[in-house]
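Dear colleague,

Following up on Tuesday's group meeting, I ran the structure prediction for the two-component complex that the binding team flagged. I've pasted the input sequences exactly as they went in, so you can double-check that nothing got truncated or mislabelled along the way. The structure tokens for the whole assembly follow below. Feel free to forward this to whoever is handling the docking comparison.

Inputs:
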Amino acid sequence: MSSTTVYKGRSGQWAFVAHRITGVLVFLFLLLHIVDVSLINLSAELYDEVHQLYGNVLLRLFEVGLLFALLFHSLNGLRLVAVDFFPGAVRNERRLLSAVVVLTVAVGVPCGYVIMKPFIDGTLLG
Amino acid sequence: MSTGVSTDAPVHVASRTTRGRRPRQNFETWSWFFMRISGLVLVFLALVHFALTHIVNDVVETDAVFVADRWENPLWRLFDWTLLALALLHGLNGLRWSIDDYVRSPARRAWVKAGVYTLSGVLFAYGTFTIVTFA
């Protein structure tokens, strides 16, 4: 009772850690995103000026990161819902996590390519 | 679920109280349930939003004209506001769980929560104002 509980969930524990980290990252971006979109009410020119920054290579890389965070958090969240509501999913929890990781990469890589394409094609410099 | 006292085994006080207790539906139960439901809706809203602004259209195309065209339609405003409200609440509740886990000192925890809630509240109001008043 008095000793600290140590959770040795192995893959499930890493999924938990990754879910938290991706959740916080997406939340912080959301706060920033509310501010940058709201500039449109001050002036359309200011909004456009700030918004062009998102086309910058560094911010495109950031967007690819955001995409992976969003995909993992979404898919792992679906896994959590499945595990919480369907007893069958608990038994296949490990396999479900593999599916989450595979799907995150399978969707994230081609979509990440589309985001980086203007840079890869050389139409975008620095 | 058994409500009575089992007759085929000796009854311990502890098990009797456990069995007789109804599941309590307190704030944390609803918070857990809200995360599941809002999460399901957000998978759809957030991924559609990201796909439209980064995959279907390039991010540099989503300028002020793009936003004005989209917000001509009140349904897109509703879509964006629902995404704003659910994502903020979902994220805030997740952050609340994390703060409870990692910020152990009661005083610091109270300050951190006050800061996070205030910032989120202000930005929610600001975001709502933007979506509603944009003309």
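The interface with chain B takes residues 20, 23-24, 26-27, 30-31, 34-35, 37-38, 40-41, 44-45, 47-48, 51-52, 54-55, 60, 63, 66-67, 70-71, 74, 77-78, 80-81, 84-85, 111, 114-115, 118 of chain A (CB under 8 Å).

Cheers,
M.
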